[in-house]
Amino acid sequence: MTELQMGLIGLGAAAVVGVFGYNKWQEIRQRKIAEAVMKPQHEDVLLAKEAKAEVAAVAPVERSEPEIRFEAPEPVERLEPVFSDPTPSEAVADVPMLEAEEPVVPEPAPVVEPVAKAVAEPVASPPVASPEPAEPMHEVEAGDVPAELLDPRLEYIVAMELVEPVSSIQILHSQRSTLHRLNKPVLWVGYNEKAREWQRLSPDVDLDVRRLRVGLQLVNRLGPVSEGDLVIFANAMQALADELMAVADMPPSRVLDQAAEIDRFCAAVDLEIGLNLVSRSSAFPGTKIRALSEAAGMVLGIDGLFTRYDDAGRAQFSLQNFESTPFSADSLRTVTTHGLTFLLDVPRVDHGERVFMQMSEVAKRFADTLQGALVDDNRQPLSDTQLEHIRREFIGKPQATMASFGLAAGSAQALRLFS
């Protein structure tokens, strides 16, 4: 290796050492400048003149790391922080100069951000909460109409929601002349806002109504509703809605098929059981009939029947004259008859089997007292075995069928349907 090559290698190594030393010197120099900039003894350019005087009066404390201090302000008039651009002389007034020939101007970003936060946050005015509007009052949910008042299986129901309450008497009289042409009953139900319940509307009770339900009964013992009755009812409800400035919510149009289906169901369970008591020799006097009936808890009605009712006022069974003359309070003093009939309306009687046994016991008591005989429609004597067969086959089974349909015998729906 020549002397020239050795010299070049030496110069290269010296250059590397020089660059490394220069970088190290620059690193130490910049660290000293940063420490000088971060020291807190220089003026805070973001505070007003009065705040500067107070800060200057406090002797700075030497610390190695920058620290944000939150001091409670004196109870004097609050001064809002003023953000202004500092003059070049103010920005560098307290920065020490390491070398006179190279003055260094510190970057304002590290100083401005922490000071601005430390001053502005404590003195910021708390936000004034605006009063929230009161929550609007919601109407009480009326819920569905109880089935004992209106049943969508048995009635064609029209719903109306009125803008303002209207007298129930006015509502009932509105389409009275038109609805009288119908062959099926119309049921009126309104929501009582005070009692918070649905109730039947009647002409003798005036109730302010905003929620209205009107039902046309689809079936009774006269058969299913006709298409003509449906048209009359729908037109009357639309006229009523126009008068009350309401919207009539009509149900789906499959009404006639629904009515025919219900009518077939009714035909399968609509039975009336009769036990006949006939005289063996002399006729039954009316006075004895009345005495025995009242002793059995039966009362004479305007329909000419003695009827026994349960605690809820529902008819259990009745007694009528086997002959064509109905009973009355006046005629019973002198009337005589050769036969009586005990009747039980199967779909309209709750716990029909039990009631039938009670009716059978009353009929046997009448037979013993009046010297008569219990017979069927063909005038054949009825034994206890035959009475048990009637109870099981013609009362128990039909009422079980009604229960499976969700329509209990003797319920409010059954009383409407079998009327």
From TrEMBL:
Span of the signal peptide: none
Compartment(s) where it occurs, according to its Swiss-Prot or TrEMBL record: Cell inner membrane
Record's keyword terms, sorted: Cell cycle, Cell division, Cell inner membrane, Cell membrane, Membrane, Transmembrane, Transmembrane helix
ZipA C-terminal FtsZ-binding domain span: 269-394
One GO-annotated biological process of the protein: cell division
Keyword Protein biosynthesis carried by entry: no
Principal localisation: membrane
SMART domains in the record: ZipA_C
UniProt xrefs under InterPro entries: Cell_div_ZipA (IPR011919), ZipA_FtsZ-bd_C (IPR007449), ZipA_FtsZ-bd_C_sf (IPR036765)
Stored SUPFAM superfamilies: Cell-division protein ZipA, C-terminal domain (SSF64383)
Membrane topology: Single-pass type I membrane protein
Protein role: Essential cell division protein that stabilizes the FtsZ protofilaments by cross-linking them and that serves as a cytoplasmic membrane anchor for the Z ring. Also required for the recruitment to the septal ring of downstream cell division proteins.
Family membership noted in the UniProt record: Belongs to the ZipA family.
Matching PANTHER family: CELL DIVISION PROTEIN ZIPA (PTHR38685)
Name under which the protein is recorded: Cell division protein ZipA
Species annotation: Dechloromonas hankyongensis
Organism taxonomic ancestry: Bacteria, Pseudomonadati, Pseudomonadota, Betaproteobacteria, Rhodocyclales
